Amino acid sequence: MEQTEVNPRGRLILAAVLAVALIAAVIGFAVIGGEQEVAIADADPECVESWNSDPEAVRLGRHQYFGHDYTSVEVTRLTEDGTAEAEDPEGACARSSSPPRR
């Protein structure tokens, strides 16, 4: 069996093209596939004041922050039966936390 000679320059060109394609893919993913910022409305000041005035609620908040690394909180108003977000600014205040992304 005859061995054919491989051109080392051809391999270098192929490696360079693949490296450029990989870098372009990584940059493209970072720009296009990165997290998108979402506009967040300010929490209702009455709900926040109500929460912060309740010692048991503050204790729970501290536990979630220090014990579970919860750093995000959503404050909203609920319908009278508590099953959905209320359009009514007089609905019951509700607060929820979620664990951090890992």
What do you see in this structure?
The protein is α+β, with helices and mostly antiparallel strands and 102 residues long. The protein has a domain at 45-98. It has helices spanning 8-32, 45-53, 55-68; strands at 72-78, 92-98. The protein has a two-stranded antiparallel ribbon.
Annotate the secondary structure layout.
Elements: H1 8-32, H2 45-53, H3 55-68, E1 72-78, E2 92-98
Antiparallel strand pairs: 1-2
Can you give keywords for this protein?
47% helix; two-stranded antiparallel ribbon; single chain; 3 helices; 14% strand; alpha+beta; 102 residues; 2 strands
Q: Can you give me a brief rundown of this structure?
A:
The chain has 102 residues and is an alpha+beta fold. Helices cover 47% and strands 14% of the residues. The protein has helices at 8-32, 45-53, 55-68, and strands at residues 72-78, 92-98.
Number of strands: 2
Please list the strands of the largest sheet in the order they lie side by side.
Answer: 1-2
Helicity range: 40-55%
What is Rg? 27 Å
Strand percentage lies at: 5-15%
Helices and strands, in order, run as HHHEE
Structural class: alpha+beta
Overall average residue pLDDT: 81
> What distance separates the N and C termini?
56 Å
